[in-house]
């Protein structure tokens, strides 16, 4: 059970990355490679705020949200907006993510830092397994976030506008939606989210410069499993990836954790290319 | 100055690179020291990997990062068989390239199924797996500590000296770049560019998108595997350190900087990154930031890289030189009237076809018959399902029900490239013409799948390849004359005016000797003269026996050309018959033409 808990928690982290991907995907049909690197920055800022500056956790969360949100906004301006070709976008957002990783390595070096969780690091016994408070909170946060975002997209005007944009950008524009502004705000929001979530992600993964690369991949696997654009799908994807990784690592060997996840990705792409929670979309001319 | 330029351009394009290769070969005898030789070798190895990536990113249009894994596969294969006593370098190169090819195929198939980000991600994942896989086979690979004890390579049984090894690396690099260059300038290179521009277009020309991308990915594995083998034998030691994420990013940065869509850009990019940045002090600290900067600004600012800038300058100089030479050539066989050969049309029949997108019923129970040697027109207001119907025939959408057949061959449910290969060719509402191709190349791409010459035949320039290339040229010239573009063979296809781009599409759709041709609003945007050429051509195609289907808003043109007219409204056939009947059909006049009773039929609703 301990393994299940830990697998679910790491799965929740991957799902959080995938949610970031999804928000950008829904709002501008592009893919932000740097999403996970933004989360990595969130974890570092949390570390600095709580351990170095000894600030209260809520202030640290707000600080991280603002800083990372600004960085995301900057990324949108220089790495996304001027680029027209989708293939170039993959390259430029990858470039942005490498720069972030490089900056983190320059400032904090290559060693991982332990980030304390504000609600304590006491192990709890639950359903016959040991679990850290942060692991439970991570699972709760991701579920609440998905419910919240789903409600938001169905009931708020902005959410509906976003869904409209994802369906047909031109039609939304004709209905008076400022498509570029919305896309920009949605992008910046993923940064705010990534920064704030550093409070929860940091204690689980530690703050380390190379966090971005591995999170980016696992987040993508979650997305591929759950389906592009499906928020609910990220929950299932996160669960599958997290558990696979934890179980493979425990019962087969640590070297097999990534390999197992890769295998799952391959099987999913071959069997159901559009993901578990998506209808097959037809190509258009 | 310009005269000198013309002389340079008169040399074959491979002359300069070959000269560079010879200079590189001679460098050691000119007294280059060991440190420098090693740098050149490392640059060439990097250039080989970059060149493999370019085939994907620059030509097939897919971002892939797995070349480091293929590089590792080549290196470890060489290391392991070298340790086992097989030191003959040619054998190692062969086996290493094969190992890389296997890694490429296994990782490429799932990633390419989805395209876009999927290949980027699965190939990215591959890099992450390298240390894990090496550590699983710790016994033989040495895991994270690296593989030691690789024996000195031999060539025909003799140990290879340092100088000989340098020559070997340069020769392999020259051979690979010659190989790559021959692929890229051949029809395969054109097909790659079509694919990069638009998978939809590629499949309408009968090109299997998946297969084409996979072959680019697999082909790109070869230089990476070769580089791996050469790397393993350079230091006789390899470890996972040489195959990290950072190295993969250096490769990508070199590709972007040198220009992904070029053959020799890989050398420039590799040279800059190897000599420039890796030498810089503090590279360890700032390396990632610099690499990231290359990617970010390279992607934003110059999408063609250094090679792209070079190509632009060359084109400008060419243009200037041509201007000064007074345009002496080029206007030879201006618009010679070409003959239409006898064409074997096929009976296209659509029976009770329906299609719904979600709750929106786009077509319901549509039946249509287009006969060889006749022009069948489909008209109807916007949103009545005309283009949807064409797309169903071309295989872009699956039918919900009904049958689409060419003579006796049912084609519904077939992928579009197969439909195209069965003889259905088409034009698009918005002309779909790849960038950076000349008019004649763009038209030749229509013959890619009907006349086949393998990539290897292109590399070795076999007689069959040469024959097909000649036929490509003469056929393209012929169909271009048909549409009246015979004098613009070498113009940049993408920058033609709209009317000419439409005519170019018609030429492209004719070159593959189709049985059925679908023309989607081909007359819109044409001026009077072009319209006459087009109308005349359509009538001649009909005479020649082709099955012609046109979707058109210009009612007068339809009346002039069509033998049968089908009127679509809200997804079903409202009326069909000869032009004279349709013209007088009261429902057509009212609903489609918006004419209540006695006017003359010029005010179109849907136009």
Automatic annotation (TrEMBL), chain A:
An annotated GO cellular component: plasma membrane
A Pfam family matched in the record: BPD_transp_2
Membrane topology classification: Multi-pass membrane protein
GO MF terms held by the record: transmembrane transporter activity
Subcellular localization: Cell membrane
Domain of life of the source: Bacteria
Sorted UniProt keywords: Amino-acid transport, Cell membrane, Membrane, Transmembrane, Transmembrane helix, Transport
TM ranges: 6-24, 31-50, 56-74, 86-110, 130-149, 182-201, 221-244, 251-271
CDD domains associated with the record: TM_PBP1_LivH_like (cd06582)
Classification via InterPro entries: ABC_transp_permease, BCAA_transport_permease
GO biological process: amino acid transport
UniProt family annotation: Belongs to the binding-protein-dependent transport system permease family. LivHM subfamily.
Listed PANTHER family: ABC TRANSPORTER PERMEASE PROTEIN (PTHR11795:SF450), BRANCHED-CHAIN AMINO ACID TRANSPORT SYSTEM PERMEASE PROTEIN LIVH (PTHR11795)
Name under which the protein is recorded: Amino acid ABC transporter permease
TrEMBL record, chain B:
Xref: SUPFAM superfamilies: P-loop containing nucleoside triphosphate hydrolases
GO molecular function per UniProt: ATP binding; ATP hydrolysis activity; branched-chain amino acid transmembrane transporter activity
Stored SMART domains: AAA
Gene3D superfamilies the UniProt entry points to: P-loop containing nucleotide triphosphate hydrolases
Residues of the ABC transporter domain: 348-595
UniProt keyword terms in alphabetical order: ATP-binding, Cell membrane, Membrane, Nucleotide-binding, Transmembrane, Transmembrane helix, Transport
GO cellular component labels: plasma membrane
Main location: membrane
Spans traversing the lipid bilayer: 6-27, 39-57, 89-109, 115-137, 165-184, 214-234, 246-267, 287-310
Top-rank taxon, per record: Bacteria
Subcellular location(s) per record: Cell membrane
Annotated membrane topology: Multi-pass membrane protein
InterPro entries reported in the protein's UniProt record: AAA+_ATPase, ABC_AA/LPS_Transport, ABC_transp_permease, ABC_transporter-like_ATP-bd, LivM-like, P-loop_NTPase
Designated name of the protein: Branched-chain amino acid ABC transporter substrate-binding protein
Lineage of the organism: Bacteria, Bacillati, Actinomycetota, Actinomycetes, Micrococcales
């Amino acid at each position: 059970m301990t393994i299940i808990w830990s697998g679910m928690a790491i799965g929740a982290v991957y799902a959080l990355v995938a949610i970031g991907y999804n928000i950008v995907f829904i709002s501008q049909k592009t893919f932000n490679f740097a999403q996970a690197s933004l989360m990595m920055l969130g974890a570092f800022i949390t570390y600095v705020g709580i351990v170095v500056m000894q600030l209260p956790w809520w202030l640290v969360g707000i600080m991280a949200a603002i800083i990372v949100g600004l960085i995301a906004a900057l990324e949108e301006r220089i790495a996304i907006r001027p680029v027209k070709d989708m293939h170039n976008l993959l390259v430029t957002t990858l470039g942005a993510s490498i720069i972030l990783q490089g900056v983190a390595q320059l400032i904090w070096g290559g060693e991982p830092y332990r980030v304390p969780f504000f609600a304590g690091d006491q192990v709890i016994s639950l359903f016959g397994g040991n679990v850290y408070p942060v692991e439970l909170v991570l699972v709760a946060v991701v579920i609440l976030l998905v419910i919240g975002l789903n409600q938001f997209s169905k009931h708020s005007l902005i959410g509906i506008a976003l869904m409209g944009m994802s369906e047909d950008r031109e039609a939304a524009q004709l209905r008076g939606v400022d498509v570029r502004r919305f896309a920009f705000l949605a992008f910046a929001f993923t940064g705010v989210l990534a920064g704030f979530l550093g409070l929860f992600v940091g204690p689980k993964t530690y703050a380390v410069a190379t966090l971005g690369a591995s999170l980016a991949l696992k987040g993508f696997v979650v997305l591929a499993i759950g389906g592009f654009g499906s928020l609910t799908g990220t929950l299932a994807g996160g669960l599958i990836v997290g558990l696979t990784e934890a179980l493979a690592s425990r019962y087969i060997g640590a070297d097999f954790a990534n390999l197992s996840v890769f295998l799952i990705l391959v099987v999913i792409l071959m069997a159901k290319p559009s993901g578990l929670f998506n209808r097959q979309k037809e190509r258009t001319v | 100055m310009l005269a000198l330029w013309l002389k340079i351009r008169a040399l074959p394009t491979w002359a300069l690179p070959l000269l560079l290769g010879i200079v590189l070969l001679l460098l050691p005898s000119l007294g280059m020291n060991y440190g420098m030789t090693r740098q050149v070798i490392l640059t060439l190895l990097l250039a080989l990997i970059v060149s493999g990536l370019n085939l994907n990113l620059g030509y097939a249009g897919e971002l892939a990062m797995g070349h480091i894994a293929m590089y590792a596969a080549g290196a470890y294969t060489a290391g392991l068989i070298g340790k086992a006593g097989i030191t003959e370098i040619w054998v190692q190169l062969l086996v290493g390239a094969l190992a890389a090819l296997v890694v490429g195929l296994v990782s490429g198939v799932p990633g390419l199924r989805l395209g876009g980000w999927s290949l980027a991600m699965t190939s990215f994942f591959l890099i992450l797996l390298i240390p894990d896989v090496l550590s699983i086979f710790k016994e033989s690979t040495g895991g994270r500590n690296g593989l030691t004890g690789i024996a000195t390579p031999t060539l025909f049984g003799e140990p290879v000296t340092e100088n000989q090894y340098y020559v070997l690396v340069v020769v392999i690099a020259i051979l690979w770049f010659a190989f790559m260059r021959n692929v890229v300038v051949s029809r395969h290179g054109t097909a790659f560019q079509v694919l990069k521009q638009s998978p939809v277009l590629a499949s309408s020309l009968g090109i299997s998108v998946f297969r084409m991308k996979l072959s680019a990915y697999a082909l790109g594995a070869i230089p990476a595997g070769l580089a791996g083998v050469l790397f393993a034998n350079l230091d006789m030691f390899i470890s996972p350190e040489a195959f990290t994420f950072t190295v993969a990013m250096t490769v990508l940065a070199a590709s972007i900087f040198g220009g992904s869509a070029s053959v020799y850009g890989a050398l420039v990019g590799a040279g800059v990154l190897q000599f420039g940045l890796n030498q810089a002090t503090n590279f360890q600290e700032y390396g990632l930031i610099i690499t990231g900067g290359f990617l970010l600004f390279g992607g934003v600012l110059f999408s063609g890289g250094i090679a792209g800038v070079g190509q632009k300058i060359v084109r400008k100089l060419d243009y200037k030189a041509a201007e000064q030479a007074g345009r002496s050539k080029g206007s030879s066989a201006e618009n010679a009237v070409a003959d239409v050969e006898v064409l074997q049309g096929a009976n296209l029949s659509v029976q009770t076809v329906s299609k719904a997108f979600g709750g929106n019923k786009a077509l319901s129970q549509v039946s249509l018959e287009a006969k060889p040697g006749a022009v069948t027109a489909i008209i109807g207001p916007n949103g009545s399902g005309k283009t949807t119907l064409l797309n169903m025939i071309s295989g872009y959408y699956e039918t919900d029900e009904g049958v689409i057949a060419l003579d006796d061959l049912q084609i519904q449910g077939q992928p579009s490239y197969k439909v195209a290969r069965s003889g259905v060719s088409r034009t698009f509402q918005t002309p779909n013409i790849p960038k950076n191709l000349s008019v004649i190349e763009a038209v030749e791409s229509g013959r890619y799948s009907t006349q086949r010459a393998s990539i290897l035949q292109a590399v070795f320039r076999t007689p069959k390849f040469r024959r097909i290339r000649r036929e490509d040229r003469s056929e393209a010239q012929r169909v271009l004359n048909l549409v009246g573009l015979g004098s613009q063979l070498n113009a940049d296809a993408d920058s033609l005016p709209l009317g000419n781009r439409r005519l170019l599409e018609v030429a492209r759709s004719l070159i593959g000797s189709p049985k059925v041709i679908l023309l989607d609003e081909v007359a819109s945007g044409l001026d009077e003269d072009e319209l006459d050429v087009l109308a005349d051509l359509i009538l001649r195609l009909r005479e020649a026996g082709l099955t012609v289907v046109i979707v058109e808003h210009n009612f007068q043109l339809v009346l002039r050309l069509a033998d049968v007219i089908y009127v679509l409204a809200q997804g079903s056939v409202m009326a069909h018959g000869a032009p004279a009947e349709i013209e007088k059909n009261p429902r057509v006049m009212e609903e489609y033409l918006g004419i209540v009773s006695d006017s003359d039929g010029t005010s179109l609703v849907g136009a």
